[in-house]
Amino acid sequence: MLQIPISTGGGNHIAETVNVGGTGLAIRLLWNERDGHWFADFESSLGKNFGIRIIPESPLLKSSNRVLPEGDLVLLRNAASGTEQPGYSNLGTEWGLYYVDGEDAKMLHSYGVI
């Protein structure tokens, strides 16, 4: 499992490029004020996944994964305490974005996390 460094820095738009499992991954996160959720676009040389609502403790790419064929992305709680849901100001602090490979996903699933 690999934590992907993200920081909102108080803004409503984040753009990062990271190396995940040997694949360059462009990440764009956008805060939707009306909906009260973060949305994401993910792009690699393998494909694109756009307009994904960030749902905590759930595989974000699932069966439509076109960017990371060897794994998935999941938002997990970093802090034992704090807010129940990721919000405008706690993404990257209380909640972190993680890359999980197949084995990590099986382990998290067995513990009821995803």
Question: What does this entry look like structurally?
Answer:
The chain is mostly beta strands and 114 residues long. It has one domain. 8% of the residues lie in helices and 44% in strands. It is built from one helix and seven strands; from the N terminus they run βββββββα. A hairpin with a 4-residue loop joins strand 3 and strand 4 (37-44). The mean pLDDT is 87.
Topology:
Blueprint: E1 2-4, E2 13-20, E3 23-32, E4 37-44, E5 47-53, E6 71-77, E7 95-101, H1 102-110
Antiparallel strand pairs: 1-7, 2-3, 3-4, 4-5, 6-7
Task: Describe the structure concisely for a colleague.
With 114 residues, the protein is mainly beta.
Tally of structural domains: 1
How many separate helices?
Answer: 1
The amount of helix comes to: under 10%
Number of strands: 7
Give the amount of beta strand, in percent: 35-45%
Strand order of the largest sheet: 2-3-4-5
What key phrases describe this protein's structure?
44% strand; Cyanophage baseplate Pam3 plug gp18 domain-containing protein; four-stranded antiparallel beta sheet; Pam3_gp18; 114 residues; three-stranded antiparallel beta sheet; mainly beta; 7 strands
